[in-house]
Structures are given as C-alpha cells and as structure tokens.
Amino acid sequence: MNPRSALVLAGHGSHISPHTAGQVWEYVDQLRARNVAHEVTACFWKEQPSFAEVLDTLTAEQVYVVPVFTAQGFYTQRVIPVEMGLSGAVTHRGGMTVHYARTLGEHEHMPNVLLKRVQATLATHQLDPLATTVAIIGHGTRRSDQSQRATHDQVQWLQQTGCVAEVLGAFLDAEPSIPSIYERATHPTIIVVPFFLAMGSHVTLDVPAELGLSVGESYTEQADKRVHYTPPVGSDPNMVDFILELAIEAGFVPATDLPTSAWQGFPQAGWESFGAWWQAHAPVRFGELELTAQVLGKGHANAPASPSISMAELRQQMRENPFRPLSSAISLPDRGYHDFSSLAHGCALVETIYPGAIALWARQQQGELSIFSLGAVVGRQVGNFRHIEAEQASAPHLQAICSACTRQPLWRGEGVAVVAHAIPCPEPCNFWLTSAIGAEESDR
Ligand code: SF4
C-alpha cells in the first residue's frame, strides 16, 4: 500500500486583505478536487494555521511543502524552515518525512505567464509592440536581494523574446522604485505587470498608489504615458499544475486510487477523537460553534439549517466582509447552521471555519500538546519579532487581544484551566506578535 501523502502550500497571508491567503486556499480547493493526495492544506506566516502548527494537523507519512511565493528569499529560506523545523530538502520528523520543494515563482514556465499577460494586453488594446514598454513590478526587500534577482531574471527573459520594444523592472520595497518607470520608459505606452500571486493589498492598493492609479482602475495616463495595469500572475489557471509539478520534482507521486469522497483531502489529525467526543456529548460547544448531532453553526440550533454549502463559500463567509485575519477571533459571523452528511463532512466544516483547531484540541486531550512561552517563540525569530520583550506579555492591550479570541492562551502560563470545548493556543500567534511590535510592518 502506498504511504499516505500530503501537500502543504505555504503562503504569506495578510492582516489587511482576505485575498492574499484566499488565493492560496483557492489552489488548495483545486488540488483537493483533483484527489491526488490524502491530505491537502495551506499554512501562513500571518494567518492560521501557522507554519509552526500545520504539520501537526496531518496524518500523512510523506509531506510535500511547496512555498507559494514569487521568489526565493527571506520567507522561503529563513522563516519557513525555522518555523516548520525543516533541516533541508528532506526532514525526518517522527514518523513523517517532510520534503521541501522549490518556490512557485521558480517554476520554469512562470515567465510564460508574464508573456501571456503582455500578449493579451497588446491584443485587447491593439497596442503597437514597437511603441510599448513593459514594467514588471516585484516586491523586493532590503532583507534579501534574491527576490529582486528573480524579477531581474524575468525582465531579461522577456526582453529576449522581443515581444515589446523595452522591458523594465521596478520594486515596491527596493530600488528602482515604481514611479521611476515614468522617467525610464522610452515609449509612450507602458504595460505594468505585477509579479505577485494574489489580488491582495499590494496589487490592489500599494502598486496602484505608486503608479497614480485609483483603486480598481486598470488604465491611467501619467507623465505623457498611457499605462495599462494587468492582473497579477497568480490568477493564471496553470498555477495549480505548476504547484503539482514542483511537488513531483520533490518526490511526490500523485495518487490515482483514492476514494472519491469530497472530504478526503482535508488534514485529518485528531478527527477520530474529536468526532467521538462530538458524538458522545452533542450538543457541544467548540469555539463559538455549536455542534449538534445533525447540524453545526453559531446562533440558535433550532433555526432551520441552510442547504449544503461548498467549503469555498463557507470559507469566504467566515473570512470576508469584514475580513477576519484571525480565524479564532470572537467575531464569527452568525450565518446560521449547516447540515452535514457524515462526521467526516462535519469535521471538514469545522476545519474550514477553524483551520488547525481540531488537531490542537486532540493533541491537548491526548496530553501531547507542546506549549511554547513567549520567550521561546521570540528566541527562534529571524525578523522583527526577535526584539519583543517577555514583559510585554502582561501589557493590557496585548492581553485584550487574547481575551477577544476563542483559543485559550496556554502559552501565557497563568494556570489557565483547561476547558473541554476550548481550542488550545500553544504559542503567541502572528497577530499577537505583530501587535506587540506595534506595527503592521511585517505584513510587507
Ligand atoms: S495568541 Fe492570543 S490572539 Fe493569538 S491565537 Fe493565541 S489566544 Fe488567540
């Protein structure tokens, strides 16, 4: 029998925009629908489940982690390995082997996605290639010059295709700056392609602001130039194939014989014990959810259950309008109750609402949950969080963050009584740490 396998997509996430992680969850949904791995999930720097906790949500023996970033750099080379405890391309971790794949932006066909964006814009607006400059916008960072290098490589490649007269690179957080393209471009028309994966805050707010575009606009005239702004590269339909190919390159063998259950692709650690507790004690509370033997939701269980909902729709309902970057925040929208057809379906609904929570709950019930103090978490940081002081844990505004969360902050070490229906929190989350440094700087 083939070993159980899992695909994990590791993305950045955001505290500002639902679309940064939302794009990664879309890839997850597509991979689950293909039924190629026993478990498929995502993890994030800024959102839940975190890089640090995701491996504990899986039951697979062979795990393939694909970084969903546009370039190798600070996050892929330093943050993810430290947070996930990876020692290289292959890491043995108890009975699990974790394979760390190349980054999505390194896929050989990524330049073709850029080329497609340019060709589509030329055709749609009937632009003259010989009178057009393309500007590829990368993120860039002062922490590592490698992400700039990826954009420079794309610029060079596109220039060599001869698809337009001129190709330039510019960066959101490095030099040359985005506004510099107005001085550097030598042609009257500029096609600006954001080399980003999601329609997150960089693509919808930050880059347009630098270009002089209003929110939602895709065309402007600035400094005697006609500027066409394209969607980001991550919305290309081939991205999921690229992710799969990178996992295969790392050793993943797509399964062909998995049962076609719609709930097969979810991370399943703890489902058995959680399901048994749920069945034995229903109705029970879990976070803000009420779980009965037939339905689950927030509010009054005797309200009529809504017809079955897809996981993508449910996730969107729970995360957006307004955006809830912390899935465990006590602000779950009251959208009524959901039917479930089996306990596995019920667990998949809970996992979609509270990613990673069932595994945390089960580990705590089994006495296997490791708790990490603020000092321990700060001690492993490679970025700004390493400057956080232990005393900050007692700051009232930081205590208030945990008071507004359904997770129980066991890491605070205040003798918090363990409650059966509570979701345990073993270490300060990114939302808390970001508040502790008093900025959204690390969202960048
Ligand atoms: S650190 Fe506090 S806010 Fe963050 S998940 Fe834990 S309990 Fe919730």
Walk me through what this model shows.
This protein has 444 residues and is of the alpha/beta class. It has four domains: 1-108 and 238-268, Rossmann fold (3-Layer(aba) Sandwich), CATH 3.40.50; 110-235, 3-Layer(aba) Sandwich (Rossmann fold), CATH 3.40.50; 270-369, Gyrase A, domain 2 (2-Layer Sandwich); 370-443, Alpha-Beta Plaits (2-Layer Sandwich), CATH 3.30.70. The chain is 34% helix and 18% strand. The protein is built from 15 helices and 17 strands. It has helices spanning 18-34, 51-54, 74-84, 110-124, 146-161, 181-184, 201-211, 239-249, 271-281, 311-319, 343-353, 357-365, 374-379, 396-403, 430-436; strands spanning 5-11, 39-44, 62-67, 90-93, 96-100, 132-138, 166-171, 189-194, 219-222, 225-229, 284-286, 289-291, 295-298, 305-306, 336-339, 407-409, 423-425. Helix 10 packs parallel to helix 11 (343-353). The radius of gyration is 23 Å and the shape is globular. The model has no long low-confidence stretch (mean pLDDT 92). Iron/sulfur cluster binds at residues 328, 401-402, 405, 407, 409, 425, 428-429, 431-432.
Summarize the structure.
The protein has helices spanning 18-34, 51-54, 74-84, 110-124, 146-161, 181-184, 201-211, 239-249, 271-281, 311-319, 343-353, 357-365, 374-379, 396-403, 430-436, and strands at 5-11, 39-44, 62-67, 90-93, 96-100, 132-138, 166-171, 189-194, 219-222, 225-229, 284-286, 289-291, 295-298, 305-306, 336-339, 407-409, 423-425. It is of the alpha/beta class.
